[in-house]
Amino acid sequence: MKMKKILNISNTFTWILISILVLIGLSACCPPFCINQNGDTKNPYVFAYVDTSWNLRFRWSDDGTTWSAAAGTPQNVDFAPGIDTDDVGIYLAIFKASGSYPVRVLRGLYNSWDNTPRTVGDGHPNEIHSGTSIVHIEGEKWLVAYNHYNQAKVVIYDNSYPQDFKAEVTPVSGVAANNNLIDKPALVNRNGKIIVSWLMNNQLQMVTGDIQGGNPVWQPGYLFSANVPEQGFGPPIGAHALARDRQRFYVAVVRQRDPLPGEQISHYFLFIYTSDNGLNWARLTYRETRNPQSMSIAARGTNDIIVILSSPIVTGPANSYRFDGSNWTVLDNSMVFGSYPINAGHDFTLYLRY
Question: This protein's superkingdom (predicted)?
Answer without folding.
Answer: Bacteria
